[in-house]
Each structure stands twice: as C-alpha cells, then as structure tokens.
C-alpha cells in the first residue's frame, strides 16, 4: 500500500471524526441550553406517571417532581416571566388524566381516610368537635351573603365557616429574613401569595401568640421572592431554592417543638409562583400547601392541599378596578381567548379555532393602555377559554369571573380553587385537552337556560375571589384560610 493511499485514508478518517465531534457537541449544547422536546417529554411523562400513582394510591411521597420545566426568569415583579420550555406535548394516550368526577370521588375518599393524632389535646378535641358539627350541620338552602347552588354543600360550608370564625387560632413563625419571608408582591399574576401573607400577618382575629392554643401554624414565605432573590439566571436549576427551603424547615423543626406533634400536618403555607410545588417538597409535603399551581401530576393532594386562585392584580391600590361585564343579551362572542402560545395546549386551540367566525381565538393581542381590548372581549363573550400554558394554572380563570364570563377550563389534572367547598361544575365548563377539536360543539350544546344559570352563578361566586385591604366576610382572604381550616378539620382523628 503506497504512501499516497495511506494519506487519503487518514484524511477521510480525520474528516469523519471532526464531523462526529461537532455533531455530538451541538447535541449536548442543545440539550443543556434549549431542552430538546424529546427529553422534556420523557421527564414530563415519568413525573406524571409517578405523581398519578401516588395520588390514586393515597401514598405520601417526599419527592414528586414537577411536570413543567420553567427556567429563564424575568426580574419584573408585574409580568409573567418568560420560560424556556418544551412546546410539544407527549403522547396524549400515555398521560394520566383525572376527570372532574374522579377528583370529586378522591375528595370524598380523602375525608373518609383514617388520620391519627398522637394525643387527645384540647386542640385535638376542638377539631374533632368541629368536624362532628360540620358533618351534622343543620340543613339550609340559602343564607344572606352566600348562594346555595355554587357550593358542594351549603349547610356544611356555612357551619364550617361559622366555626372557623369562632374557634380558629393560627400561630405564625417569626423566623426568616425579608424579602423571602414576611414580604410579598401585591401586583402581577403571583399577587395571591403576597396579599395572603400581608393580611395574615396583620390579622387580629385568628392570630395567636400562644402556640398551645393554635390549630394551625403558618410558615410565611414568598416563592416568587425566593425565585427573584436566589435563582441564578440561566442556571437551569432550582436546586439552591429547594435546598434553601429544606434548610429553613429543618431549622424550624429543630428550634421549636410544634412540628413534631403532627409531623407538620397542622402547618400550612401559601405560594403562587410556578415553582412552589418544587420548593415545598420533602418535609414540607406534609403541610397543607395552598398552591396556585395545583397540579396533581406535580404532587398536589386533593383533600389536604388547597388550590390557591391566580389573581392578576394590576393595581395594589385598586384590586377591584373595572370588574363586571355585559348582560347575556349583549354578549355576541361565543368564546374568547388571547395570549402567548405557551406550552402545548394553546397552539392546538389556535390551530383548530383560530379562523372560526363565532369564536375569537388569538395569539397575544397588541398592547393597549389598561389592557382595554382584552378586557372588552371578556366583557362581551359568553365563554372565556382558560387554557393552560406551561403550568396548569392561569389568571384567566379569575379574570373570567371578574368580567362575568363563564370560564371554560382546559387544563388536565388542574384542581380548581377551593375545590373542597365550591361546585365548579355549576358555574364553569371543564373540557379535557384531548377534546379541543370538539370544543365548539360542547359550547353550542349548552342551552340558553343553562348558560343564563351559569352566568348568574359566576356573578355570585366571584365575590369569594376579591382582595380587600381590610378583609370582609367570605372574601378571598377568608376563603383561603377557610379551606386550610376545612382540610385540617377533616384530616383529624384520634388514634
């Protein structure tokens, strides 16, 4: 074999290895910085299967992973952060989906499960007595300030709320430095956690300094401010945030004796940022978690955790500005949606219905001062589509209620706010993601009488979702606290 032929082979081999090295490097970098859909899809699928198994088996887990991957974060307090996530949906037939009827059944089973407390303390006896009174509440059809059809059981809700006002005492941990603890943002889509924290710490009726009389222990922290303070931009990792909350929890357990009495089941927290489920894993999974991202696949447990409403507050000084809308006779648009094409559901919605003349399905609308164009569409539409983005929750659910538009929730495995007491099927339409191609038929099949009924119920239920700088009866602050109280009462049984 002559030298010329050897040089020819050597040059071919070198070229091949150079190409192979280049392609391999490109793939690694793409996975690291752009998260190829196939890998995100596999992660989504595995986490979904795991969480569904745990939920349906009623097994407690300390490490159920989130089913979304949101990493690139804006430092703006008032705007939703852009997230570099997978736009493709894994194969629909392989994803576990829990229907609303299955959620209802799971709620009932969770209240029937035996839970134990180690000793018959005065607080335990009060909780057991409250539970007995709620279960045997005097039957009522209505009451001033509450409207029977929007509740699962108005008699139980009314009695439970009365007992909360009479009995409930909450001990608040004072540990932790601002801004992560004892501080919150009052505007934007994550405002719920800030408003609740602010109002809870200022409350005089329910807060106690005497831990021995406390039915609940509140851990006041802001997942949004945790993210803004500690997340390393472009790091693609929340590990330091998760570790931070783990360290804080372990400090509380070591410093105080309160946790060990119930293994944390009488503790609670509230978080609206998408990452709150991840930051409250481990020991904090034992607590009652009030979460906007109420995703069964991410470990949300019906009957224990509380679904926190995502309220987009545009003005902290005037959170109720511009609510209301047209009567049914003036609502000329069948259904409306506008927004960024986040996640895998919204592009499907746009693809099927973007050109339909009866519905207004858009991408992001051009910015108008006060978001007037968007709000006007909500005020003149019969149904408002609340399609999930990267995470299951969306401020559109609350916006629909504020503007008297019947919400159409398209977000599999999302547990609607205050699920334990509100009958969402009475004032909203819940559509599985796979049924988007049939969406128009679903809406047209609803009779005018049924729509008018839901419209009136929307007007009634929205009163539960308003923030007030000075809380009033049945408002959002009280509803959050009530759901935490309610789930705590129904998890109490003596061993």
Task: Outline the structure in words.
The protein is of the alpha/beta class and 495 residues long. The protein is 40% helix and 8% strand. The protein has helices at residues 3-34, 37-57, 100-112, 122-135, 154-167, 191-202, 223-230, 239-255, 258-262, 276-279, 345-353, 372-379, 396-402, 439-444, 448-461, 476-489, and strands at residues 170-172, 216-218, 267-271, 288-291, 306-307, 333-338, 359-362, 381-387, 406-410, 429-430. The chain has a 5-stranded parallel beta sheet with strand order 1-2-3-4-5. The chain has a 5-stranded parallel beta sheet with strand order 7-6-8-9-10, sandwiched between helices. The longest helix has 32 residues, at 3-34.
Question: Beta-strand percentage?
Answer: 5-15%
Helical content stands at: 40-55%
- Gross morphology is globular
Largest sheet: 5 strands, parallel
How are the SSEs placed, and which strands pair?
Blueprint lengths: L2 H32 L2 H21 L42 H13 L9 H14 L18 H14 L2 E3 L18 H12 L13 E3 L4 H8 L8 H17 L2 H5 L4 E5 L4 H4 L8 E4 L14 E2 L25 E6 L6 H9 L5 E4 L9 H8 L1 E7 L8 H7 L3 E5 L18 E2 L8 H6 L3 H14 L14 H14 L6
Helix pairs in contact: 4-5
What are the defining features of this structure?
about 500 residues; alpha/beta; Rossmann fold; 5-stranded parallel beta sheet; globular; disordered N terminus; Exostosin
Summarize the structure.
40% of the residues lie in helices and 8% in strands. It has 495 residues and is an alpha/beta fold. A 5-stranded parallel β-sheet has the order 1-2-3-4-5. It has a 5-stranded parallel β-sheet with strand order 7-6-8-9-10, sandwiched between helices.
């Amino acid at each position: 074999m002559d030298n010329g032929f050897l040089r020819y082979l050597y040059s071919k081999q070198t070229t091949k290895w150079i190409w192979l090295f280049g392609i391999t490097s490109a793939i690694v970098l793409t996975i690291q910085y752009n998260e190829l859909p196939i890998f995100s899809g596999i992660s989504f699928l595995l986490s979904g299967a795991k969480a569904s198994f745990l939920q349906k088996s009623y097994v407690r887990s300390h490490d159920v992973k989130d089913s979304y991957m949101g990493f690139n974060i804006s430092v703006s307090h008032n705007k939703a952060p852009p997230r570099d996530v997978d736009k493709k949906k894994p194969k629909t037939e392989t994803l576990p989906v829990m229907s609303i009827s299955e959620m209802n059944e799971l709620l009932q089973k969770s209240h029937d499960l035996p839970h134990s407390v180690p000793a018959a303390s005065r607080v335990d006896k009060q909780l057991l007595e409250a539970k007995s009174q709620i279960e045997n509440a005097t039957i009522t059809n209505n009451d001033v300030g509450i409207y029977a059809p929007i509740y699962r059981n108005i008699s139980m809700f009314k009695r439970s709320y009365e007992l909360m006002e009479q009995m409930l005492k909450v001990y608040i941990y004072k540990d932790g430095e601002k801004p992560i603890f004892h501080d919150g943002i009052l505007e934007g889509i994550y405002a719920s956690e800030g408003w609740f924290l602010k109002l809870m710490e200022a409350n005089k009726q329910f807060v106690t300094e005497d831990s021995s009389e406390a039915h609940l222990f509140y851990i006041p922290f802001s997942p949004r401010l945790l993210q803004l303070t500690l997340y390393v931009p472009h790091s693609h990792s929340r590990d330091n945030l998760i570790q931070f909350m783990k360290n804080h929890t372990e400090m509380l357990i070591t410093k105080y004796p309160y946790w060990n009495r119930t293994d944390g089941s009488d503790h609670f927290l509230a978080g609206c940022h998408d990452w709150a489920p991840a930051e409250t894993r481990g020991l904090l999974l034992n607590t009652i978690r009030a979460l906007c991202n109420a995703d069964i696949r991410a470990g949300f447990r019906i009957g224990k955790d509380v679904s926190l409403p995502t309220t987009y507050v545009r003005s902290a000084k005037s959170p109720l500005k511009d609510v209301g809308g047209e009567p049914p006779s003036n609502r000329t648009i069948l259904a409306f949606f506008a927004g960024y094409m986040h996640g895998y559901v919204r592009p499907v919605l746009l693809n099927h219905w973007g050109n339909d003349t009866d519905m207004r399905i858009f991408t992001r609308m051009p910015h108008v001062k006060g978001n007037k164009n968007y709000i006007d569409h909500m005020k003149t539409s019969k149904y408002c589509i609340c399609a999930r983005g990267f995470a299951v929750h969306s401020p559109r659910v609350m916006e629909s209620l504020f503007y008297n538009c019947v919400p159409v929730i398209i977000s599999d495995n999302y547990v609607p706010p205050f699920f334990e007491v509100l009958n969402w099927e009475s004032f909203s339409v819940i559509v599985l993601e796979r049924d988007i191609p049939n969406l128009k038929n679903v809406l047209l099949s609803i009779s005018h009488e049924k729509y008018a009924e839901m419209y009136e119920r929307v007007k009634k239920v929205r009163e539960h979702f308003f923030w007030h700088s000075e809380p009033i009866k049945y408002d959002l602050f009280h509803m959050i606290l009530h759901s935490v109280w309610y789930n705590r009462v129904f998890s109490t049984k003596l061993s």
